[in-house]
């Protein structure tokens, strides 16, 4: 293609920014100062936002007149600041390893505000039982093991929630996807036999599910299944009092649905060869062409979602139960059942960003700009999670910042001008061909320069530290907690591990 501009018109995917995160991104010189001091990559978390998000979930429970608890799925982020801030709210926490459980206990959560989920080794189960947390049990063998530990170590009766899966509507089609976790709804009877044998050691307080899907239909089926399971428990003489609807409420990452629609349409055209490629090496994000026909499906997170987070929970509770017909929230209320939820990603919405410094800008033989960052694909794993979203350019010199060229996108031939919109490939700092921060070309309002920062917004859920490694002895990002200072547009910060709610909760200092 020679030097012809590969991209005729910018295809932006602007991040959705709520006021707190937007205001932080406008403080470019503050962010540059932090990276100058602490290095690149650098992660920033916003504890106050986390508390606000938990409150949004709570208010959904109130709207449906339900009692219950919101458990933050800790695995979404390792931050101490976020966990400690939540400890000082009314929220609870879902720990998926002995390390997360220790972190929660050491951050101020008491056992009655913790639930443990996921695969459990005996040490994890023992600490959970010792600390009086609720065990979300995967199946009969875990119940057996828990009962054995309770007796052997003379621990108090352990509260357990039964994780179920494989729900059906009216006994025909299995609507919920297969999961390697939980006990099939069909095997509930056997599970209750196990519980009967261990009544002295285990107190089944409820049932639940966690489905890794965005489908509301699957979740209404599962929730109705849980309402039936609660009845089964009551018939067998147990006293269940909660249903746990798991996590998976999601985030709407993008500001504009039209950009998302246009981008995915153009991506399809590119895979079909009807327009120049939009990705490194023609990567198709799950799409491919065989004999002129489009195959596969886009393996991407639905980055623009009309309903996500607390609004998704609200929608679930407002939906009619598939066979009982009345709203699920009403049915929960009538069965005197509390609602537990375990949002991970959704509670971290707008709670952080990842900064990477631009090290080098050069061009490929085809004149496409390559931008190398002082971070790698493990430091900002948006791609790994299928989230396509543009970073925000924060120039070193303080010139007009911002991501998507609301201003400059004058269209057509501007695509390769140094001062106009440009499509760049973002490369990481590892000696690996695969170390691409994005597999797609990303449009920026202008070509970055060494020393500029790229800010990846909204990475606090799984995309910040879940996959970070010390590969090649590159530094792992430090993490800082920030909150608004007393003066307008001022920020205060501390290292994540130095954060304690005391003295850091804006306006609530003692
Ligand atoms: C990961 C996980 C969650 C959180 O899922 P999100 O999609 O981040 O909301 C909740 N519960 C369990 C059991 C999990 O494994």
Description:
The chain is α/β, with parallel strands linked by helices. The chain is 27% helix and 19% strand. It has twelve helices and 20 strands. The strands form three sheets. Strands 1, 13, 14, 15, 16, 17, 18, 19 and 20 form a nine-stranded mixed β-sheet that branches. An eight-stranded parallel beta barrel has the order 2-3-4-5-6-8-9-12, surrounded by six helices. Strand 10 (287-290) and strand 11 (293-296) form a beta hairpin. Helix 3 (47-63) packs across helix 4 and helix 3 (47-63) packs parallel to helix 11 (310-318). Mean pLDDT is 91; it is low at 1-5 and 402-417. The protein binds pyridoxal-5'-phosphate. The site of pyridoxal-5'-phosphate has 16 residues, from loops.
Point out poorly predicted stretches.
1-5, 402-417
Structural class: alpha/beta
Distance between the termini: 65 Å
Major beta sheet summary: 9 strands, mixed
DSSP helix fraction:
25-40%
Bound molecules: pyridoxal-5'-phosphate
Shape: globular
Average predicted confidence as pLDDT = 91
Gyration radius (Cα, Å) is 25 Å
Tell me what portion of residues adopts beta-strand conformation.
Answer: 15-25%
Query: How many helices does DSSP assign?
Result: 12
Number of strands: 20
């Amino acid at each position: 293609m020679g030097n012809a501009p590969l991209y005729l018109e910018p295809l932006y995917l602007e991040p959705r920014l709520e006021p707190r995160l937007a205001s932080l991104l406008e403080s470019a010189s503050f962010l540059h100062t932090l990276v100058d001091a602490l290095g690149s990559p650098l992660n920033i978390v916003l504890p106050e936002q986390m508390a606000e998000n938990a409150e949004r979930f709570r208010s959904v429970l109130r709207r449906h007149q339900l009692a219950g608890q919101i458990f933050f799925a800790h695995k979404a982020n390792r931050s101490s600041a976020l966990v400690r801030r939540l400890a000082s709210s009314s929220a609870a926490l879902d720990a998926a390893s002995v390390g997360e459980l220790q972190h929660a206990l050491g951050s101020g959560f008491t056992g009655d505000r913790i639930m443990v989920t996921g695969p459990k080794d005996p040490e994890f189960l023992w600490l959970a039982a010792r600390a009086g947390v609720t065990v979300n049990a995967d199946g009969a063998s875990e119940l057996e093991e828990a009962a054995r530990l309770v007796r052997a170590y003379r621990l108090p009766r352990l509260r357990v929630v039964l994780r179920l899966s494989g729900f059906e509507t009216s006994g025909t089609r299995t609507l919920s996807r297969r999961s390697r976790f939980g006990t099939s709804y069909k095997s509930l009877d056997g599970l209750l036999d196990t519980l009967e044998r261990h009544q002295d050691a285990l107190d089944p307080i409820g049932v639940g599910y966690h489905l890794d899907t965005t489908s509301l239909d699957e979740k209404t089926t599962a929730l109705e299944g849980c309402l039936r399971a609660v009845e089964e428990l009551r018939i067998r003489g147990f006293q269940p009092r909660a249903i746990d609807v798991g996590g998976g409420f999601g985030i709407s990452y993008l500001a504009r649905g039209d950009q998302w629609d246009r981008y995915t349409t153009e991506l399809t055209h590119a895979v079909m060869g009807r327009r120049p490629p939009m990705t490194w090496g023609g990567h198709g994000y799950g799409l491919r062409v065989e004999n002129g026909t489009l195959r596969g499906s886009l393996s991407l997170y639905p980055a623009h979602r009309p309903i996500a987070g607390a609004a998704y929970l609200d929608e679930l509770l407002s939906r009619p139960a598939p066979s009982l017909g009345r709203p699920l929230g009403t049915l929960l209320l009538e069965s005197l059942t509390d609602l537990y939820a375990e949002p991970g990603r959704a509670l971290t919405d707008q709670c952080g960003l990842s900064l990477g410094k631009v090290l080098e800008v050069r061009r490929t033989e085809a004149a496409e700009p390559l931008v190398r960052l002082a971070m790698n694909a493990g430091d900002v794993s948006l791609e790994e999670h299928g989230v396509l979203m543009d970073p925000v350019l924060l120039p070193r010199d303080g010139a007009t910042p911002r991501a998507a060229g609301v201003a400059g996108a004058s269209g057509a031939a501007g695509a390769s001008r140094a001062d106009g919109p440009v499509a760049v490939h973002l490369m990481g700092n590892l000696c690996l061909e695969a170390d691409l921060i994005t597999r797609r070309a990303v449009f920026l309002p202008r070509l970055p320069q060494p020393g500029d920062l790229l800010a990846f917004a909204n990475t606090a859920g799984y995309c910040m530290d879940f996959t970070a490694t010390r590969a090649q002895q590159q530094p792992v990002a430090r993490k800082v907690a920030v909150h608004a200072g007393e003066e307008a547009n001022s920020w205060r910060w501390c290292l994540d591990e130095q954060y304690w709610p005391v003295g850091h909760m804006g306006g609530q200092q003692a």
